[in-house]
Amino acid sequence: MLDFIEPLMNVHLAVPDLFWPESAAVPAAPPSERLPALETLLARGRRTAGAEASFEAWCLARWGVPDAGVAPYALLADGGEPGDSFWLRADPCHLRVSRDHLVLVDATLFDLARAEAEALVESLNRHFAAARIEFIPLQPERWYARVADAPVLHTPALAAARGRPVEGRTGGDEVRWRALENELQMLLHAHPVNDAREARGELPVNAVWLWGGGRLEALARRPFGRVRSADPLPAGLAAAGGGSVLPLPDDAGRWLRAAPDAGTELVVLDQLRAPAGYGDYASWVERLAALERDWFTPLLDALRADRIGMVTLHAIGAGGTLDAETTRQDLRYFWRRPKPVAAYAR
After folding, report:
1. What pLDDT, on the 0 to 100 scale, is given for residue 178?
2. Phi, psi (5° rounding) for residue 83?
3. Cα–Cα dist 196/113, whole Å
4. What is the pLDDT of residues 82-123, one digit of tens each?
5. Alpha helices in 17-166 (DSSP H)
């Protein structure tokens, strides 16, 4: 009788904004450094295109709930109990005046202490108790709102809104919620926490970005046995589906020492999202080089050494997704010549 040999692990790397957004400006002389490991994975892998236009949409589609809201799954990962309530992400942010419009700045560009977050939320809850809206700061930089009546409201995800002119919401309840947001801003503007922050030269938290509303839904699929992510959405989806949620190491070397030999694991590398959102090309290039050094090169070496069975790269951006599935056998196809990363964006 032949012994059953368990297949080697398939690691999925989800990398939002791996390609510089087409809508963002690029310096006249972009850097010429090549990324050989990333270029090899893209060139030798079997590439397919997907239609999801954001990381959030990609996650929800993978778990089979494309129309679900982000908030209840993120809340679950942050230690909350979604129950059957309707939840919104209610992220603290700063609205900055720029010429004739407002620009949203999120907590990736400022620090907010837990005591500050709790003091701000206490005032909001006192004011909005009659409206049956409860704010919960599970993380200092990530809040949630439980609402009694589910609003008909469509708002861009925080990552899509950061660094850009603030656009109006759409939906049947847009007027009512715009008035609510105006009340929020007035309360926050006059809050002692913000007075103290401005006195220290820090950005005040003068707005809350409401988005991702929904109720917890049963998942249709369990695509990954294990998930490692600093973003709460894939972690919450994994937890809701009975998968394992594990710490995200700093680099692939530490990950390889801790990872099992078999199974399917998702690793979310979202370091490029904030610089892409704010149009910070220099930081984006620097972080991409770090991903090449810390993740793509060690994983390519592990694939060559037969330590892992497959690397599946998911490049996710506003124009859609590009998936590249690479095995050790694929690395032998030398005629699939690597090209600069930007060439694959097209």
Report:
1. 83
2. 55, -140
3. 12
4. 999 999 999 999 999 877 788 999 999 999 999 999 999 999
5. 36-44, 55-62, 71-77, 114-128, 158-161
What DSSP character marks residue 261? S
Residue 2 gets which letter from DSSP? P
Q: What's this model's pTM, rounded to 2 decimal places?
A: 0.93
Whole-angstrom Cα distance, residue 8 to residue 155?
A: 41
Residue 326 identity: T
Are residues 231 and 270 in contact, defined by beta-carbon separation less than 8 angstroms?
Answer: yes
Q: What is the three-class DSSP state of 217?
A: coil
What pLDDT sits at residue 147? 95
Nearest residue to 228 (alpha-carbon basis) of 185, 264, 202: 264
Cβ distance 311 to 300 under 8 Å?
yes
**Which residues are within 8 A (CB) of 231 and not within 5 positions of it... i.e. 6 or more apart?**
55, 268, 270
Angle between helices 36-44 and 297-304 (to 10 degrees): 50
Output the pLDDT for position 3: 45
Burial of 248 (0-12, 13-18, 19+ CB in 10 A): middle
Cα separation, 66 vs 74, whole angstroms:
15
Q: What is the three-class DSSP state of 303?
A: helix
**To which residue do tokens 């949409």 refer?**
57
- Using 50 as the pLDDT threshold, list the residues of the chain that sit under it: 1-5
Convert the pLDDT of each residue in 133-189 to its tens digit. Answer: 999 999 999 999 999 988 877 888 999 999 888 876 676 777 888 888 889 999 999
User: What dihedral angle (degrees, nearest 10) is formed by the CA atoms of 123, 129, 132, 133?
Assistant: 0
In the numeric block, which tokens belong to residue 176?
């009512």
Torsion of CA 143, 185, 98, 105, to 10 degrees: -10
SS3 breakdown of the chain: % helix, strand, coil, rounded to 5? 35, 25, 40
